[in-house]
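Researcher: I'm comparing several assemblies side by side, and this is the next one on my list. It has 752 residues spread over two chains. Same procedure as the others: predict the full complex and return the structure.
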Amino acid sequence: MSTESSPWEDHFSGPENQSHAAQLGMWIFLGSEVLLFTNLFVGYAVYRYYYPDVFAEASKHLKTDQAMVQTLLLVTSSLFVALAVHFIRRGRQFLTAAVLGAAIVLGVAFLAIKGWEYYEHYKEGLLPGEFFHNEELTKQGANLFFTLYFLLTGLHAIHMMVALGLLTWLVWGAMAGTYTAEYHIPVEVGGLYWHLVDVFWLFIFPLLYLVE
Amino acid sequence: MNPSAESSQPAITYLNHETTVKSWLLTHDHKRIGVMFLVGVILSLLLGGVFAMALRLELLTPGPTIMSPLTYNRMFTLHGVTMVWLFMIPAIPSAFGNFVVPIMLGAKDVAFPRLNLASFYIYLTGSLLTVSGMLWSGADTGWTFYTPYSTVSPTALTPVLLGVFIIGFSTIITGVNFITTTHTLRAPGMHWTRIPLFVWTIYGTSVIQVVATPVLGMVLLLVFIERVVGAGIFDPSRGGDPVLFQHMFWFYSHPAVYIMVLPAMGVISEVVCAFSRKNIFGYKMIAASTFGIAFVGFFSWGHHMFVSGQSTFTSGIFGVLSMLVAIFTAIKIFNWVATLYGGSIDLRVPLLYVLGFIFLLMFGGMTGVAVATTSLDVHWHDTYFVVAHFHYIMVGAVLMAFLAALHYWWPKMSGRLYPERWSFLAAVTIIFGFIVTFLPQFLLGNMGMPRRYYEYPQEMQWLHVASTAGASLLAFGFVLIAIYLLWSLRYGPVSPPNPWGSRGYEWFSGSPPAPHNFTQAPRFEREVHDYTVPEAPRVY
């Protein structure tokens, strides 16, 4: 069993083996996450096929400019996370914490914009399911668009929060000196998770906002 | 290393090195987690069995017998939900897989021991939530939760859905753990072509668990949201499509059949070798057919929807793909029989269950091909014929393998032997009881008895009575097993390290194994189940 002082666990044959296992485990989990979203993408495809015009119409009620900014924020945050992995491999603990902190700030900004956007939808009555009420969009199917919109962006936001929690934990670990040039598995796999959450957005954004 | 030479039993085992309750509840030891899962799934089996007996008693007479129609609806739902999600999905992978897979690979533990413990507690939480929903006011949709009824059912479906959703996470974590363990923690000498077939099937199962379970999780979450905020995704009155639910549900729930049956096939591959004193015939074909089943299983969900308005062309494709499963299964069956052929057969209780398994799987598989034929299925859809078919697979195959595993690995897990004669009697009772229970249901289905019906015409009664009589035999068999296994925990003779003379890798460690499985670092220099060495035991 692992002791408190060493991060290396003795059921692995060595550091390389442990790192390999952690990365592989995370990749498999990411694959599983993709399938979680797939259902919603399928739902989107099916209902877009049923109500093509209504979906195009409903999509115009989303705030594309804000989403553009959100996209930039997220992509930049991914760059910072990639830099964090780069720095910790060289043992630069403070720099690692700093760039991770920057990524967290961008992530929080993303969520803030999302929250504001939700508030705007709330004022316009663009809400999921039976709460949907909007004078301009009265045709059947518009409520489904917004149900899917809230499900996709909401599930993504939940993933963002989990990932932000992970990054905060990593900043704490980096500041405490837990991660070194030799041992930095959590930074690597935590980074992978952040990138996946980012990639989800890169699919959600065009599907909901950009497709005519 | 060979088992007979290494047969010295370690004095300190995983059972006695720490004995406090806390050392169990917070353990990272895969063996203890496996045992905890085993206790959980056996309790679930008991619960599901009680519901099943209630159903069979109700169906003893054509009219009302012991319960109201509404209670009956709840009973079959609870029976299905408990048996599928609380018992069968975790039964072999999480309980026996956890216990023996790392030992078979020569590892000290699974790759992520803490996650493994988390998996158990997630399973426990989900199960308790599901059971609390059952106690609250039950659920009456059937285990398939079909929309649109499930979106409006007044019963406590919400906690049940949430519970099953949570159990899904446990399944995913266990799957991630086993795949990673198989890739990274193999002992020296454990090449890919030497991996025991049980590990191969657990690996294939894990792939399905990781890929399919999130889809189920999401669809259950959608029904949950539908019930809470009226999302409208599956509600035609809001423009949704209820059949979409069926697609999403069966995309998981068809492969889920293979989550249940593949590990069962792995158990059979191990037990058949151990008791015919021969290495498996066609190792590579069995391993490959495992992945054949796992792969094809993902493309056959539409055979549940032949009467859901699917196009004839689509149904035809799904029908043909479903039949491919029978080919892969047949490859396995022929190889098991070929392994038995010319072997030095020791007819012990685990092997008896294996023979039951092979026989019943043939019935289940052949009728599977029949119901995959669109024209026939239109007649049999939603009748007892289908009920009998999937019980032949799920009870006839999975439960037989579960019992084979329970008896085969009982000395490994507990260090005790069970009474041979009583267990033989129980095995015969269960196999015979099973046939008496479900063979009449094929006939009932063909006569037109629909599934989930509370009443039926007088002329069907004799078949229902036969079925209930068989179910009573099954229940008797299970009570017998429960009694002698509990007895053996305390009074059973202490087992030698390798009571079966098996050359499966897991028997290279003690029974029960040391806390870290092996007292010296294992090296695998021979094929698994290699009985050609002179010290291997034989039965003449």
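Model: For your comparison table: Chain A has a mean pLDDT of 91.
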